[in-house]
Amino acid sequence: TQYSFKEVFGTQVVQKELFDVVAKPLVEDLIRGKNGLLFTYGVTGSGKTHTMTGSPGDGGLLPRCLDMIFNSIGPFQAKRFVFKLDDKNGVEVQSEVEALLERQRREALPVPKTPSGKRHMDPEFADMIHVQEHCRVEEVDEDNVYGVFVSYIEIYNNYIYDLLEEAPFEPIKPKWNSCNTPVRNGDFIPPQSKMLREDQNHNMYVMGCTEVEVKSREEAFEVFWRAGQKKRHIANTQLNRESSRSHSVFIIKLAQAPLDADGDHVLQEHITLSQLSLVDLAGSERTNRTKAEGNRLREAGNINQSLMTLRTCIEVLRENQLYGINKMVPYRDSKLTHLFKNYFDGEGKVRMIVCVNPKAEDYEESLQVLRFAEMTQEVEVARPLDRPLCGLTPGRRLRNQALQEELARRLELRGGPVGGDTEEPSAAELFFQSLPPLPSCELLDINDDQTLPKLIEVLEQRHKMRQMMSEEFAKNVLAFKAMLQEFDSSVISKENYLQGKLSEKEKTIAGQRTELERLEKKIKTLEYKIEILEKTTTIYEEDKRNLQQELESKSQKLQRQASDKRRLEARLQGMVAETTMKWEKECERRVAAKQLEMQNKLWVKDEKLKQLKAIVTEPKPEKPERPSREREREKPVQRSMSPPPVP
């Protein structure tokens, strides 16, 4: 038996190759604001959990998705509690003050609500998240801020449980009857489960589910491993030592919003919330092989029932698309299909990994899995729409960072020592420094005749330099005026040239506008004519349909009349044939009676003639006996054949 799939991986495939082909496009769509669903499907013990989680030294799809997300948005993450999820599957932006107060309130709690990413990693799962390949999304919008939230739920016995809930996870309790003794028929009361709700965008979500904001891949995987994976239902069966007894769903939500024009604050109006759901389905199994009983038997029945509902939904979707019908898809028959019905209706991309165990004992189950997986490829899911652009100038974050750095540098320079002023001297200071220094002007002796002449000489030198500079300044002013006049004349000529060009362009634009108006009028006229023609066509089509209906009715009437005529002709022919036979028999009977009567008359005449002859020839004739009717009957008279009746 052969089955065809989009991609087939061998037994020696590494996790990176599987991630690059299957999960990497989903992570790229997540950062671009689109939803995605990835789930593993197969019989029990075929490697679904290993594919999703991985092993020490070789992380699976889940840690690699987290690694790629934080490698891509690491430097662009918002501070903790800037994004806040509400209880209606929405997100809002808090101010920096509100986020700071929330962080201080959380730090004041005795027990931290979220595991810290700075603490030493548990060696039990540390090797799974150290991915050697540095994988990231290209062309990440650097003008957005991002926030990552994770949640972890399981669907156990068709009930939804929050694995990250702080309340102690109680095992399922037995039902007690009125005599305060446990019921022996094996019925149980499940603990309080979560409810599914529909948000304003008609997307399904788990109401009251714990959603933890994480800032690193280590913190996210620690939430997954410590808080969630340890609470998941697993059990030992005949086929798998650690068999998953529930469907686990790890949801990664990415909130992103653009910065404002200054690159400082987050815009509330353009928030995008996308999510990636990583689903590890429980394996289908046959109870005669697992030897399950009690709770294990009940779990297996619910697992198989939910997987059968998934198959039914896929088959109904396929039938609706193949045959163009609108048959209702039974999403609500199972919590698993009800939770992800939006993905099948076109709210995101769906990828399924089929895990197959080559064991001979799993032959029949593997054939069923492969047949169903091949059939799912025929179902087409609508492509999600791209998120709208905010319309702001790109590069706002980098410009804001450069501005902050420049302001910090200038503040540092301004706050330095006073003697360290490095400002360049002005032109006036340079002029005063170029003049000869003034000598001392103190007259200590009345007979001093050197100080004043020196002062006069210096002042005369300064006066001469001032006159020279004034003349040079006047020359420069005249030259600058000539340059300005020349520049003004060139500007005026260019303005005149541009005015001429502009007038030509305006004339061209006016001509084009008149042409556009003419064309618009023509278009309106043609549209009016088209509308009239469409109405006329509609009337003619209606008349055509009426005439066709009338023609069909008349043709049907003619056919009925022809059939009635044929039936009447057949009936008349039958009546004519019957009447002809009847009259033929009647004629034969009458001819026979007439012949008998004529023969009797001839016999009477013969007798009379014989008597006359006897009287004439013999004197004493004897009286003949008349033959009796009995003798005539015993000896019938030979009759001559009568001629056929004339038609």
Automatic annotation (TrEMBL):
For this UniProt record, give its keywords in alphabetical order, as a comma-separated list.
ATP-binding, Coiled coil, Cytoplasm, Cytoskeleton, Microtubule, Motor protein, Nucleotide-binding
Q: Which PANTHER family match?
A: KINESIN-LIKE PROTEIN KIF23 (PTHR24115:SF600), KINESIN-RELATED (PTHR24115)
A GO BP annotation: mitotic spindle midzone assembly
According to the UniProt entry, the coiled-coil residues are 502-578
Where would I find the Kinesin motor domain in this sequence? 1-379
State any GO CC term: microtubule
What CDD domains does this protein map onto? KISc_KIF23_like (cd01368)
**Which InterPro entries does the UniProt entry name for this protein?**
Kinesin-like_fam (IPR027640), Kinesin_motor_CS (IPR019821), Kinesin_motor_dom (IPR001752), Kinesin_motor_dom_sf (IPR036961), P-loop_NTPase (IPR027417)
Molecular function as annotated in GO: ATP binding; ATP hydrolysis activity; microtubule binding; microtubule motor activity
Q: What is this protein called?
A: Kinesin-like protein
The cross-references to SUPFAM superfamilies, in alphabetical order and at most eight, read: P-loop containing nucleoside triphosphate hydrolases (SSF52540)
Q: Where is this region: Disordered?
A: 613-647
Species this chain originates from? Climacteris rufus
Q: Which family does it belong to?
A: Belongs to the TRAFAC class myosin-kinesin ATPase superfamily. Kinesin family.
Q: Which residues bind ATP?
A: 42-49
